[in-house]
Write a structure and sequence with these properties.
By secondary structure, the protein is mainly α. Helices cover 81% and strands 0% of the residues. It contains 4 helices and no strands.
Length: 91
Amino acid sequence: MIDEIREKFLPRFIASARARLQHASDAISQGSEAAPAIAADLHTIAGEASIMGLAEIAEIARESERAVRQVGGLDDATILAALGRLARGLE
């Protein structure tokens, strides 16, 4: 069943996740006010990855979301590193 879901929805998931990552990367320049939107994008990626059975991607997205929420602002290099790690995981 999970293989059928992946086959049907994986390309859409990848495209959507990349768009969300781009949105998050673009929002970083807005400072700490963008943190909730970035965390929401990462939360969505984690949920969709979980549904797709992509546990590793889901965990990276959750870790990234936690990093954004813990920092509270976006002037921390860990946020950029987390987004980069997630982007590499989607490749």
